[in-house]
Amino acid sequence: xRKKDAEKTIDGRIKNQGxxxxxxxxxxxxxDKEIRGMINDYLSGEFEVTAFNDGMSAIQKIxxxxxYALALIDLMLPDISGxxxxxxxxxxSKIPIIIITAKDNDIDKSLGLNLGADDYVVxxxxxxxxxxxxxxxxxxx
Length: 141
Fold this sequence. Notes:
Elements: E1 6-8, E2 14-16, E3 19-21, E4 25-29, H1 33-43, E5 48-52, H2 55-64, E6 70-73, H3 82-92, E7 97-101, H4 106-115, E8 119-122, H5 127-140
Parallel strand pairs: 4-5, 4-6, 6-7, 7-8
Antiparallel strand pairs: 1-2, 2-3
Keywords: DNA-binding
Protein name: Protein containing Signal transduction response regulator, receiver region domain protein
InterPro entries: CheY-like_superfamily (IPR011006), Sig_transdc_resp-reg_receiver (IPR001789), WalR-like (IPR039420)
C-alpha cells in the first residue's frame, strides 16, 4: 500500500482503497508447535498474532477478512503447500508476506518471491531479525 493510497482512521487502522487493515495484526501459518509458540510469544508484545497450524484454516480466515497487516507462512505444511497459500492470498490481498522455512535453496527462494512473497527467512532465524523484517515490510506496505 502506498502512502498516497492509505489514510489512517482515528483508531490507528489503515484504510487502503476501502479495505481496513489493522497495523499490528499478523497471521502466522506454521505447523511446528514449538516454532509457532516461540514466534507467537515473542511477537505478542508488539503485535496481535493469529496463529494457525494448517493452511486451509488460515486461508479461510485470510480470504474472508483483509484485516491483517502481514502474513508469516511456512512452506512445508501438512495439508497444503505454503506456495499454494501465497497464490491464493495474492488473488485477494496485497498484504506483505514473509516466508519462514527450512528450505534454503535458491530455487525455492526465487519461486516464493516470484509468486508474491515479499521476504524469505530461513530457519533457524533470529526473532530480533524477524521482528525487524516484519516492521520493515509493514512500513513499506
